[in-house]
Amino acid sequence: DAKTTQPPSMDCAEGRAANLPCNHSTISGNEYVYWYRQIHSQGPQYIIHGLKNNETNEMASLIITEDRKSSTLILPHATLRDTAVYYCIVRDPNTGNQFYFGTGTSLTVIP
Amino acid sequence: NAGVMQNPRHLVRRRGQEARLRCSPMKGHSHVYWYRQLPEEGLKFMVYLQKENIIDESGMPKERFSAEFPKEGPSILRIQQVVRGDSAAYFCASSPLGPSTDTQYFGPGTRLTVL
Which of A15, B22, B58, B88 has its CA 20 to 30 A from that of A54? Predict the structure, then answer.
């Protein structure tokens, strides 16, 4: 599975949009981009995933660049409860049974 | 619709004892995955099971660790003769159709402390 690069930490003001970047320059055509988050000491929570098109659900939006080498997770109106570590994972569902969790981005939402 | 359930949430064992961690997948899910998270690190895959079968145990330590997912009942991760280095959070995830098509949904974890 392709390696991802994320900034180690970010801050965001409460009520503002949080934009979390992820670089995955070696992504292959079959690999999806997944986002999970882990709120302190809890189990990872699935957020969203996509292949090449932008995706939106009730939690967030996922913007994938046309060349698929990077993506951005957008939390449109960050709240204090969005403070967590966010993991960007690329995975080929046909070749792996697991998700590779790196070190992620620690997002702090500031009141 | 209950999520993935794990118990116990916290487990304390002395060196040399056995630890048994249980995972009940989401209703309708027949695929279970175990991950371990050491302090200050990301999650690391251990094993993938379907009912009564171990499909992929590539991340499982060769000794002292075993996993099962019987036809009836929860999946069990068993650690024999625990050592201090086994202290970690152990997370279980489940999916309905298997890794090729599905997102994995995680439980709250079991925090094992070895004294």
Answer: A15
In this structure, what is the dihedral angle of CA atoms B19, A37, A45, A67, given to the nearest 10 degrees?
-120
From the CB of residue A31, how many other CB atoms can be counted at a distance below 10 Å?
21
Q: What is the pLDDT of residue A106?
A: 96
Taking CB atoms and an 8 Å cutoff, what residues of chain B touch A48?
none
Buried residues in A35-47 as b, exposed as e (16+ CB within 10 A): bbbbeeeebbebb
Partner-chain contact A46 B103, CB within 8 Å: yes
Up-side HSE of residue A85: CA atoms within 13 Å toward CB?
Answer: 17
What Å distances lie between residue A97 and A107, A108, B69, CA to CA? 28, 31, 16
Average pLDDT of chain B to the nearest whole number:
92
Write out pLDDT tens, residues A76-93.
Answer: 999 999 999 999 998 877
pLDDT-flagged residues of chain A (< 50): none
Distance CA A36, CA A24 (A): 16
Question: Positive or negative CA dihedral for B60, B55, B24, B77?
Answer: negative
pLDDT one-digit tens code per residue, B12-44: 999 999 999 999 999 888 899 999 999 888 899
Determine if residue B52 is left, alpha or beta; phi over 0 gives left, psi from -120 to 50 gives alpha, anything else beta.
left
Report CB contact under 8 Å: B108, A42: yes
